[in-house]
Design brief:
Length: 171
């Protein structure tokens, strides 16, 4: 369990780093007439991701979930791959990446990096991480509940983001 706690603290620190990058990028895009969309779902997203980390810690402790190597090691590999994909997305989008939906009218869509293969690769990383991170320490209930909640949130988020991008993209 101590190594899992360290992993969760590392993911929490990564989230803080994301927020620092997002705040800087928000200032950059807003200074270029960027328009924010979907403010209403953002607090739900923050609560979901915070709750995920808390429940990842609590379920193994309260339900006495063991570390199962056959499940834990592959789940850890997936969680780490999700982080790598997330940061590839962040690096590819540069100042356009954000945790919020902010688009600069007239800016071209990015078609490099992982965006050559998928329209929303960052959300692939999120889906994998939400499912895998709890399973590193057999927190199957957390994985199930937060995967379902994340699916509902992503339905709203993707609709919002696709609409915003379509409205802002040059003809």
């Amino acid at each position: 369990m101590p190594w899992y706690v360290i992993l969760l603290l590392a993911v929490a620190a990564e989230r803080v780093a994301e927020l620092v990058v997002a705040r800087r990028n928000a200032a950059w895009t807003l200074a270029r007439a960027g328009v924010e969309h979907g403010r209403g779902h953002y607090p739900v997203m923050v609560a979901l991701h915070t709750g995920l980390l808390v429940c990842c810690l609590l379920e193994p402790l309260l339900a006495d979930r063991p570390f199962l190597p056959a499940l834990g090691w592959p789940a850890l590999a997936l969680a780490l791959l999700a982080q790598a994909l997330r940061w590839w997305c962040i690096a590819t989008l540069g100042p356009y990446w954000n945790t919020r939906v902010i688009v600069v009218p007239g800016a071209r869509l990015v078609g490099a990096g992982p965006y050559r293969f998928l329209r929303h690769p960052n959300y692939v990383a999120v889906v994998v991480e939400v499912a895998a991170l709890p399973l590193v320490h057999s927190a199957w209930l957390t994985a199930t509940v937060f995967t379902a909640a994340n699916a509902m949130l992503l339905t709203v988020r993707l609709r919002c983001e696709n609409t915003a991008l379509a409205q802002a993209a040059p003809a």
